[in-house]
Design goal:
This protein is an alpha/beta fold. The protein contains 16 helices and eleven strands. It folds into two domains: about 130 residues, 3-Layer(aba) Sandwich (Rossmann fold), CATH 3.40.50; about 160 residues, no CATH class.
Length: about 350
């Protein structure tokens, strides 16, 4: 069996290659961004037939003879490959077109790219999607085709969960990258600090599991990733270490009958506490119920959020102003509903221009 890996140099991509080696899977193609040094190391180990990178100016630095460049290059690479499984660990809106193309080609998509479902879940065939987010994997693992009453996912709370709210007004971009529990890419770490990441995950769960009866709480230790409340009144939780190899292993191998992670030591873990997500610290949370009832507006949140993050990084706005921009765009475009993928893409462009 072979796979195509989109986003090979990020944390999900690196873990995917570890799991792939464990199961002796061939890597038919690697797609990376701008970390060419790591990509070259991966090429040397996995010997892919095809490679794609973000920027053509880096092409001469890549140790491969079959290189594609840019967003269109990724789509062309997918058309050339034959693997039945595509792991999409790209970050941001750029991951949508490859998800759509992979599904069009009849591939299974092991999906870590949140934005695909947030932006266009209405137009994506969920039967082709296998989630490798720890929260959605946890929900799937627990549900096991039993009748459910409500789904819950957890949040770490992000970099500023213990800050005074008044101090968050002057927080710097670099400070927002200090995640308390793990190391991730810049965008997802900022989204964790604003709680936009968790709003996205609620939307993903809505599309994946066809329910709007979903909520999220803060669990600072990030040991419990998901909980399922069943119609019989019982609730079951998914405990696991902070490691993406388990959901990746299930996505790639369909079943796992060996230890992938060390078991959680309940005595060392100690007490577990759940806290509510409040809109004074996380302003984006005020639209939680509305977006679940109107999931087609995910494209508005995503587009405005990506622009806002860039403004924050450049020092053009403060931490809370990011969420203000998103909420402003959300109000501005609340009456618009895309009827197909082309309209989704036009709306994405329009929202970005408005927020910019």
């Amino acid at each position: 069996m072979s796979i195509v890996l989109l986003g090979s140099t990020g944390s999900i991509g690196v873990n995917t290659l570890i799991v792939a080696q464990r199961y002796n899977l061939e890597i038919e193609a690697l797609v990376a961004g701008r970390n060419i040094d790591l990509l070259n190391k991966q090429i040397a180990i996995h010997n892919p037939k095809f490679v794609a990178i973000a920027d053509e100016k880096d092409k001469n630095r890549v140790n491969h003879s079959n290189i594609f460049c840019g967003d269109s290059g990724i789509v062309e690479l997918l058309e050339r490959t034959r693997s039945t499984t595509v792991v999409n660990a790209l970050v941001g809106y750029t991951g949508l077109a490859p998800t759509l193309k992979a599904i069009e080609l009849g591939r299974k998509v092991a999906l870590a790219n949140k934005e695909s479902l947030v932006v266009a879940g209405e137009f994506i065939d969920m039967s082709k999607i296998v989630p490798i987010d720890s929260e959605h994997f946890g929900l799937w693992y627990l549900m096991n085709n039993r009748p459910i009453s409500k789904l819950y996912i957890t949040a770490s709370g992000g970099a500023f969960r213990d800050w005074n709210i008044s101090d968050m007004q002057t927080a710097l971009f670099a400070e927002a990258l200090n995640h308390p529990n793990w190391s991730m890419g810049n965008k997802i770490t900022i989204d964790s600090a604003t709680m936009t990441n968790k709003l996205f995950e609620l939307l993903e769960a809505k599309w994946l599991f066809d329910t709007t009866n979903i909520d999220a709480y803060i669990e600072k230790k990030s040991i419990i990733h998901a909980l399922v409340e069943f119609v019989d009144g019982s609730t079951t939780a998914h405990f696991a270490g902070v490691d993406m190899k388990l959901p990746i292993a299930f996505a790639l191998n369909n079943r796992v009958e060996e230890e992938i992670l060390p078991p959680v030591d309940l005595l060392k873990m100690g007490s577990v506490e759940f806290k509510p997500i409040t809109s004074d610290r996380y302003p984006i949370w005020e639209i939680k119920e509305h977006i679940l009832a109107n999931p087609h507006l995910g494209v508005v949140i995503n587009a405005s959020n990506e622009v806002a993050i860039k403004k924050f990084e450049k020092g053009e706005c403060n931490f809370f102003e990011m969420s203000k921009m998103v909420l402003d765009a959300y109000t501005k475009f609340s009456d618009i509903r895309a009827r197909d993928i082309d309209e989704v893409m036009r709306l994405d462009t329009e929202v970005r221009k408005y927020v910019q």
